[in-house]
Amino acid sequence: MRPSGRAPNALRPIRLEAGFAKHAEGSCLACFGDTHVLCTATVEDRVPPFLRDRGQGWVTAEYGMLPRSTHTRTAREAARGKQSGRTQEIQRLIGRSLRSITDLAALGERQVRIDCDVLLADGGTRTVAITGAYVALHAALSGLVANGTISTLPLQESIAAVSCGIVEGEPVCDLDYEEDSNAEADGNFILTGGGQIVEIQCTAEKSPFSRAQFSTLYELAAKGIAELSTWQRQALQLTPKTA
Amino acid sequence: MRPSGRAPNALRPIRLEAGFAKHAEGSCLACFGDTHVLCTATVEDRVPPFLRDRGQGWVTAEYGMLPRSTHTRTAREAARGKQSGRTQEIQRLIGRSLRSITDLAALGERQVRIDCDVLLADGGTRTVAITGAYVALHAALSGLVANGTISTLPLQESIAAVSCGIVEGEPVCDLDYEEDSNAEADGNFILTGGGQIVEIQCTAEKSPFSRAQFSTLYELAAKGIAELSTWQRQALQLTPKTA
Amino acid sequence: MRPSGRAPNALRPIRLEAGFAKHAEGSCLACFGDTHVLCTATVEDRVPPFLRDRGQGWVTAEYGMLPRSTHTRTAREAARGKQSGRTQEIQRLIGRSLRSITDLAALGERQVRIDCDVLLADGGTRTVAITGAYVALHAALSGLVANGTISTLPLQESIAAVSCGIVEGEPVCDLDYEEDSNAEADGNFILTGGGQIVEIQCTAEKSPFSRAQFSTLYELAAKGIAELSTWQRQALQLTPKTA
Amino acid sequence: MRPSGRAPNALRPIRLEAGFAKHAEGSCLACFGDTHVLCTATVEDRVPPFLRDRGQGWVTAEYGMLPRSTHTRTAREAARGKQSGRTQEIQRLIGRSLRSITDLAALGERQVRIDCDVLLADGGTRTVAITGAYVALHAALSGLVANGTISTLPLQESIAAVSCGIVEGEPVCDLDYEEDSNAEADGNFILTGGGQIVEIQCTAEKSPFSRAQFSTLYELAAKGIAELSTWQRQALQLTPKTA
Amino acid sequence: MRPSGRAPNALRPIRLEAGFAKHAEGSCLACFGDTHVLCTATVEDRVPPFLRDRGQGWVTAEYGMLPRSTHTRTAREAARGKQSGRTQEIQRLIGRSLRSITDLAALGERQVRIDCDVLLADGGTRTVAITGAYVALHAALSGLVANGTISTLPLQESIAAVSCGIVEGEPVCDLDYEEDSNAEADGNFILTGGGQIVEIQCTAEKSPFSRAQFSTLYELAAKGIAELSTWQRQALQLTPKTA
Amino acid sequence: MRPSGRAPNALRPIRLEAGFAKHAEGSCLACFGDTHVLCTATVEDRVPPFLRDRGQGWVTAEYGMLPRSTHTRTAREAARGKQSGRTQEIQRLIGRSLRSITDLAALGERQVRIDCDVLLADGGTRTVAITGAYVALHAALSGLVANGTISTLPLQESIAAVSCGIVEGEPVCDLDYEEDSNAEADGNFILTGGGQIVEIQCTAEKSPFSRAQFSTLYELAAKGIAELSTWQRQALQLTPKTA
Fold first, then answer.
1. pLDDT tens across B33-54, in order?
2. What string of pLDDT tens digits covers the 243 residues of chain C?
3. What is the pLDDT of residue A206?
4. What does DSSP assign to residue A70?
5. How far apart, in whole angstroms, are the C-alpha atoms of residue B175 and residue B163?
6. What is the DSSP string of B192-235?
7. How many Å apart are CA A116 and CA B78, to the nearest integer?
């Protein structure tokens, strides 16, 4: 029995609220249970230096946690003067994943900056961030189509993400903090709406695990991401920018 | 006529939601119109090194803005590797103001850390932060009383803050971003619920102004802060910790 | 009785020595008693990036303390790798104050950098710095007029600054370190030679204070600043650049 | 046909030279073709602060590249003043992988620091680093057993790593730089000598890929790591410390 | 003919004013012509961590330049966030030189911190700093003897420093900025009052030079330092602490 | 008797292996006994900003140590976030020395970056670095001549370096770590192949020393550098680039 009473393959209650941030070109408040991440997309009319005059665009991401999003306070990275290795790893993952389904040539010489800020944390923040960031990116790019800046939406696929892991010997989907802290193995799966692989990161937390266990985790992830893709489509239909 | 249609002495719509942050010992989502600041209070059982073995406590504050709380994106301070001078000025102000009404000896050898994070910005973020931070601090300290850690609430007064300024020759209260950008003079007033002065910072933005003008701003501030004090009392009665 | 034997409204012995720094376009060694600040003005032929091609100039300031200007040694900020929040607050205040009385359009596309370095500290360093910085700025700008770079002096007013506070219940002017350490309330007043307000920062150090007390501090400040303005006029007549 | 003429499942020429670094408690110069990584293990008699008095040890890793290990010069991280996100990601991966097969309780309250420095880079540096780091760690821990500090070798398994990817539609093993730059998908597999999973990181570089393709990569990795495990055993028999 | 009209072996006008800094345990304003350096010595009752419980003391130094001590403004190191390589080289040299003539065991477990801040720069700042720092150190240590903290002055020798160089083919002593900028070779000599070598740094600025030229520079330095030693003795007799 | 059994004027076994680094335009693995430094030269087609449009080139250097090149582990500077004062001093010395024998005008508007990385440390790393860096620089510049970029080799002289010091009263050449740790005085001599002085840094480690002792050290250095120059010529003849 999971601490939350969920079935092994059940996601937490999902909420994806597009258009949450008043000023951003695209945004989504993404919640999987008690993990809440505010994702915004900012469109800029220039690309980073290494892409100048290359006729293509870029998508990048930054990630942060409010100090008291966590059970005990986490030190503010701005005050410490640098981002942790974990933060950098997560924001690189978010950016890389979004770029893999964006047609950067069709985007043209502009950059979309994604900001994912964790307001409340209860495990799985990077998967919630990716799932919400896709919605924010879609909304921002739809806005560029709507105002005639570009002619077609430069997205080849949707993506969503979920964590799966082995907790007390049992493979389960969408781990909360309590499960995550005790998992024997833990994986983050980022798949397209069509079920293709964008990125898999799977780690033995306590001891190595078998390929068969990995396959079970993969099945759980595929099912969860199919559901999240449905939530994403619903969230984007609620915002007039994507009509 | 103000852009918002408000009377010169009218505050924006006020919302103070105590207990907003699930994990914090005290918290308040404070909103003056479209300026939204999440304030949390964290209680720690030790004081900073310079106070060790002095038999008293400490209250300190940190401040931040989500990158896309603003009309155009503000660079993330954690990524830039340091807090701006403006950020440091604001967080020093918040901490100093709260300490001025806290009985640090009665608090005992513990520290309360206040985090004020701007989710949405439309002018006056530091005054919203102080007004909400007081609620978060009160809630956290009430919790210490409730669980028997300390015997009486170590707060001598309430405090709240508001900005007043001269916009197109007219003294007005609680400036929004549009007014703030065009103000000839601008002041932040931090007063106690009883109308005493905690801190005044008043600056000529375009050209020096007279003492008579200053007095008018003071009157507006005193009225606004009296109203904010009422909102604070209401917010704190809504949370069972303060019963 | 004040520790120094001064009357409540008496300044410390004032010395403003224009032209002290051999290489600078303008300079002033400003001393209020045992607080000595070396202020220099450097004229640069370009403006910061955010003002490029806007047809106006800029005035900015930096502040520092020699490590052993203080009773006990203060750690060198260059060695610690960053400026403290206090330093940033003070240098922002100096720059903002000087800009408020400078005609930035008449200055043209050039920047004046003010450096205020505390050689000896005995309270009130920021007010001494502002009072001396005005002299340095005036001298540098007069030089630009003298050599024909600009046609008229781009200064609308003079400014000076003094601290006033309540010490053992008594309102006094121009606090030295011993008084400053024990003040119940403490304010920095920056006024023009004509008595208009440029900036007021007034803080309750121990407990909130009344509006009547604030008014008394204001009176003391106005009198002190009138005297400082006279000293400034004398200092500037001593340097041939301002003839 | 691969640029190197290798069969799809063929590793590059492997060289693992244990004991290469004269001063280190354990070391290995690990070479896969033209990727050369010097791995050293340093044993320290104390653990990091978060583990103090917990009765267990720790293994951690740092990673760096000599500036001219690469085709064009890479800026020196020490001169830039910080480690890149990529560097942090790699060193976290190395440390995490080694900890997963180390019995930290049996290690006792000591820390092993692994340093992996790339002398020459031609793709796959992180997999070469992990493969060599295991040898260095084993040698250092064997030394602790040999001198009686601990009674049994606190290692539960061996680990090795290899990259596999899809290049021009073809799944291949142990990519060199030219292949890596053009891969459609790219994965790093870290498995135990017994074939269990320690960590898998698999990323779509150009476009999402299928689960069937992932399975092919996994097969290649399993075969390659079996071979690398043999090389590791040979390297450790060559050094008297492991006798 | 030298730009200043000095003879090749003539020092600039020397002024060593002991006791210049009101708060410091020892101090000296040292001037060689238009190079003015304020040197202070601070005595602390503890040693740096690497010397704890070793029964000896330490002498260390920091160096800085006021931004407008130079002809054109030098960026403030505290604002840039780090000390330059040149600054670190100079302060390491000052500390090393002073330690070479201090009996660190006789000093006991305390540290003397020397601060050398350049108020006005016209070449040779490091040699002025060392010459003044010795006076400040002597004064501070004499104070410790005077108040009974230690029984005898823990100084084995005096030291002073001067630069010598080859300018337009001519060996000269105590170069000013104009000479220094054009020197073919340039050396800093730090000798004891008795003429022994503490440190020599001699560099070809434009092209290598001969051993015979080096010998000439050495002769000039020995003569100059003998004179500086006399000035130091006079300065220390003027301050009552050394009586 | 020296710990190594060497005669007072004997160098350690010397090895200079040109072309060691596969990717660099010039390189040399330089070994004096157990001090091994990998030196590479990178040619860039642009100069640093301060030299733009001046019609000349530049040579600069960076220095680092692998963490476990030393007997006990040295903290990684990239992880600490800054280069130590010692590192900066050494890399400034290497760059300055190489520039003194390079015809920067003949080099044209390009920069050569030298990287010296210590793989194994046993005293004298800076002298080994300079000796090897000259070989790497020569190889890189010869390559520019060979491919027709410049017409003649822009080097006026060769340089090499050695340390000499007084150990237990005995002047000796090319100190290893054990000798260096106990030296009474220690000097680094950088001379041209023709015996002219490029730089001398000579320091009293324990107590001041005499000019006669200095002269003895100079003789030892001159002899050692003559031998090193022969090794350099041999190393460069082994690499076809210099034919």
1. 999 999 999 999 999 999 988 9
2. 899 999 999 999 999 999 999 999 999 999 999 999 999 999 999 999 999 889 999 999 999 999 999 999 999 999 999 999 999 999 999 999 999 999 999 999 999 999 999 999 999 999 999 999 999 999 999 999 999 999 999 999 999 999 999 999 999 999 999 999 999 999 999 999 999 999 999 999 888 999 999 999 999 999 999 999 999 999 998 444 443
3. 85
4. S
5. 6
6. ETTS-EEEEEEEESSS-B-HHHHHHHHHHHHHHHHHHHHHHHHH
7. 13
- Decide if E226 touches F, using CB distance below 8 A: no
- Give the residue from C65, C104, C56 showing the smallest Cα distance to C84: C65
Single-letter amino acid code for the residue at B26: G
Contact call for residues F24 and D68 (beta carbons, < 8 A) = yes
Question: Per the structure block, which two tokens stand in for A126?
Answer: 């990077």
ipTM confidence: 0.93
Q: How confident is the model at residue A242 (pLDDT cuts 50, 70, 90)?
A: very low
From the list A157, A204, A218, the residue facing D199 with the nearest CB is A204
Q: CB distance B38–A66 less than 8 Å?
A: yes
**pLDDT (average), residues F222-234:** 97
Asked if E23's CB is within 8 angstroms of C120's CB, the reply is yes
Residue of C nearest to E27 (CA): C68
Per-residue model confidence as pLDDT tens digits over B101-138: 999 999 999 999 999 999 999 999 999 999 999 999 99
Least Cα separation, residue F22 to chain E (angstroms): 31
Cβ neighbours of A92 in D, within 8 Å: 85-86, 89
The answer to whether D192 contacts chain A (CB < 8 Å) is yes
Instruction: Confirm or reject contact between F215 and chain E (CB < 8 A).
Output: no
| Average confidence (pLDDT) over B63-80 | 96
- The answer to whether the pTM exceeds 0.95 is no
Interchain proximity B83–A87, CB inside 8 Å:
no
CB-CB under 8 Å, F117 with D66: yes
Place of tokens 């990181």: D201
- Calculate the average pLDDT of chain A: 95
Q: Of the candidates C62, C67, C79, which has its C-beta nearest E79's C-beta?
A: C62
Q: Could you tell me if B166 and B200 are in contact, meaning their C-beta atoms sit under 8 angstroms apart?
A: no
Q: What is the mean pLDDT of chain B?
A: 95
Query: Between chains, do B81 and A76 touch, taking CB under 8 Å as contact?
Result: no
Q: Quote the minimal CA–CA distance from E125 to chain C in Å.
A: 16
Those residues of chain D that have pLDDT short of 50 are: 238-243
> How far, in Å, CA of C123 to CA of C127, rounded?
9
Residues of B in contact with A68 (CB under 8 A): 21, 23-24, 27, 40, 42, 115
Q: Provide the pLDDT for residue B1.
A: 83
Sheet containing strand B26-32, edge to edge, reads: B14-18, B26-32, B35-44, B111-120, B58-65
Per-residue model confidence as pLDDT tens digits over F56-96: 999 999 999 999 999 999 999 999 999 999 999 999 999 99
As a residue count, chain F comes to: 243
Interface test with A, best of D101, D211, D223, D225 (most A CBs within 10 A): D211
Question: Would you call A67 and B40 a contact, using CB atoms and an 8 Å cutoff?
Answer: yes
Within 8 A of C78 by CB-CB distance, chain E residues are 64, 76-78, 82-83, 87
Chain E (64-103) residues lying within 8 Å, Cβ to Cβ, of chain C: 64, 66-73, 76-79, 81-83, 87
Distances (CA, A) of A92 to A52, A63, C11, D219: 21, 9, 59, 28
Task: Tell me the DSSP string of C98-150.
Answer: HHHTB-HHHH-S-EEEEEEEEEE-SS-HHHHHHHHHHHHHHHHHHHHHHTTSS
Are the C-beta atoms of residues B241 and C236 closer than 8 Å to each other?
no
The secondary structure of residue C209, as a DSSP letter, is B
Convert the pLDDT of each residue in A192-201 to its tens digit: 999 999 999 9
Reported as a single tens digit per residue, the pLDDT across A131-142 is 999 999 999 999
